[in-house]
Amino acid sequence: MAPALLLVPAALASFVLAFGTGVEFVRFASLRPLLGGPPEPAGPEAPQGWLAALQDRGVLAPLAWDLGLLLLFVGQHSLMATETVKVWLSRYFGVLQRSLYVACTALALQLVMRCWEPVPRGPVLWAAQAEPWATWVPLLCFVLHAVAWLLIFSILLVFDYAELMGLKQVYYHVRGLGEPLALKSPRALRLFSHLRHPVCVELLTVLWVVPTLGTDRLLLALLLTLYLGLAHGLDQQDLCYLRAQLQRKLHLLSRPQEGGAQ
Questions:
Q1: Are 41 and 120 in contact (CB under 8 A)?
Q2: Residue 8: enclosing H or E segment and its boundaries?
Q3: What is the pTM of this model?
Q4: Distance from C-alpha of 126 to C-alpha of 211, rounded to nearest angstrom
Q5: CA distances for 94 relative to 7, 136, 175, 177, 204, angstroms
Q6: What is the pLDDT of residues 82-99, one digit of tens each?
Q7: Around Cβ 63, how many Cβ atoms within 10 Å?
């Protein structure tokens, strides 16, 4: 039992890293563009037009760097999700396979956020600078971001969050209960095979609904939108299953209140 108990700190460390990275991503994707204001020009000619930007190394170099960071994240996130890599990781890391995937994803996302290069000299697709838009557009974006993040957290509660983070696998292993996925219904397994990103629409709202869409933000939004679109494959049966699970969990949450009222 002792070796099994050593798995618990590793799974908890992965969970803490992922949770902290999620909080940092909220700051990176929402708070910084909403509260930081429009990017300050780096020179008298900034921001430039699109044709001039294509010939400016001061714009192309940071864009290429940011693109490399995003491709690194997408590559890690996709490669480690393949069955071949999953089997290999399970062979050498056992029940920690999911925790390792979560930790590597968090580290890759941390690398993107900490090494991201803004492009203040690049062209701006849109910017709310004139009144009253400079006041009302950021406020509206803030409200939509808040709603999107609340929906994201709610959707994660509908799913098995502990299992997504790898904690449940370790808990089941320590208790000798087997693999959690083996206890899932065929409808749940079908859903998981189709859906890798359960918060696709909400993340798209966060990426695109900003008062100022500069060049580097446009790159971030375009690439992640393409990636989310390719990984999203829900059908009608999956949506019916999700609706049933949401109703079941809401019923379970309301039962203590009903019992207290009686």
A1: yes
A2: helix 7-26
A3: 0.78
A4: 8
A5: 10, 52, 15, 15, 34
A6: 889 999 999 989 889 999
A7: 18
